[in-house]
């Protein structure tokens, strides 16, 4: 199926508008993207705007945008934020994603995510990522136990994220799905806020 995209300009931002269901690959299951019970979530679970973030912990642009997005979600109070760990840059990226997802079993995904995004630069090693998570106050013995016990579930989630990204035709990280818009670039808080405002304006029409 051909993907139809309409391009608009908003405050200097180039946004791709997914024109309804026909804009998506035939194999995309929108409900699976938005409602995967294993995908970590932040913000308001009943928020009026949902943002889906495809990220890699070795992506410098992800590290730039992720804190800005989280500031917006906290300040706004009505945004549902869904994380899609999509480790595509290195084996260390896979390791980092697994650490973060395993931390979720002790309610610490957010802490692990912030620690990993806080590592400066690209090309960080598995040891770097493990050290960052440990420094965030996460119980590493429990984390290892959860990695071992839930390896199949974590690997399956990463595979689902990868399949969804490929079905959407994503080419790299970061990518943010905000309502009908696909943003494949790092934005600051104001940039994200402008897109959210446009989504809300469209919903009121």
From TrEMBL:
<comment type="function">
    <text>May be required for disulfide bond formation in some proteins.</text>
</comment>
<dbReference type="InterPro" id="IPR012336">
    <property type="entry name" value="Thioredoxin-like_fold"/>
</dbReference>
<keyword id="KW-0676">Redox-active center</keyword>
<dbReference type="InterPro" id="IPR036249">
    <property type="entry name" value="Thioredoxin-like_sf"/>
</dbReference>
<comment type="similarity">
    <text>Belongs to the thioredoxin family. DsbA subfamily.</text>
</comment>
<keyword id="KW-0732">Signal</keyword>
<protein>
    <submittedName>
        <fullName>Disulfide bond formation protein DsbA</fullName>
    </submittedName>
</protein>
<dbReference type="InterPro" id="IPR013766">
    <property type="entry name" value="Thioredoxin_domain"/>
</dbReference>
<dbReference type="Pfam" id="PF13462">
    <property type="entry name" value="Thioredoxin_4"/>
</dbReference>
<feature type="domain" description="Thioredoxin">
    <location>
        <begin position="13"/>
        <end position="201"/>
    </location>
</feature>
<dbReference type="GO" id="GO:0016491">
    <property type="term" value="F:oxidoreductase activity"/>
</dbReference>
<feature type="signal peptide">
    <location>
        <begin position="1"/>
        <end position="26"/>
    </location>
</feature>
<keyword id="KW-0560">Oxidoreductase</keyword>
<keyword id="KW-1015">Disulfide bond</keyword>
